[in-house]
């Protein structure tokens, strides 16, 4: 069975702090894809990144970076120099062989000025 | 503009009153899906469709129906809504069914309250 665990329910930081959101996944398949989505207070789901199981190279996009480690089944997301606009719920998700996304329970990030 | 649209965005209804939430995409995607989002549970798949006239159950299908008569539309039907179906609903689409690499495009969400 596949599963995604986001153990951090809520994180609060002050602006300009770095913050890491953890994501641990479970699957027995060797081919799979991992995703991160952002859900701002307005409610929509915003796609952030997709990573396949054969590509462990870390990715950086501006203040966002992702660390994929198959050895620990983790796909963590770091925001550097956080801003108030980063306040949102962040979901990690897994897909294996189908289009169905298996979501974690989400981490609510609050960035205070 | 490429998008997935849902209507209505907000709905308050009463137990037992049939309702339909519409979903439409303009990207010619073959795959469409419905999810519900509940606090502490993340998003869970209700139903999905690989193509026209092909639908199948997701993880939480009880109390819901869907149809896919046209490629662009995938309505979600609650024949007899109950309070435990109060939730935030998302429709999603993606281009190639069976490709787990697909980025899914989500609609804006429909917040449903069943009294």
Multimer state: heterodimer
Question: Given the C-alpha coordinates, what overall shape of chain B results?
Answer: globular
Q: What's the number of extended β-strand segments of chain B?
A: 11
Query: Roughly how many Å is the radius of gyration of chain B?
Result: 13 Å
- Overall SS class of chain A: mainly beta
Largest interface: A-B, 26 and 28 residues
Written as H for each helix and E for each strand, in order along the chain, the element string of chain B is EEEEEEEEEEE
Q: Fraction of residues of chain A in helices?
A: under 10%
User: Gap between N and C termini of chain A, in Å?
Assistant: 41 Å
Order of helices and strands of chain A: EEEEEEEEEEEE
Number of helices of chain B: 0
Compute the average pLDDT of chain A.
94
Name the beta content range of chain A.
over 45%
Query: Into which percent range does the helicity of residues of chain B fall?
Result: under 10%
User: How many separate helices of chain A?
Assistant: 0
Largest sheet of chain A: 6 strands, mixed
What fraction of the residues of chain B are assigned to beta strands by DSSP? over 45%
**Largest sheet properties of chain B:** 7 strands, mixed
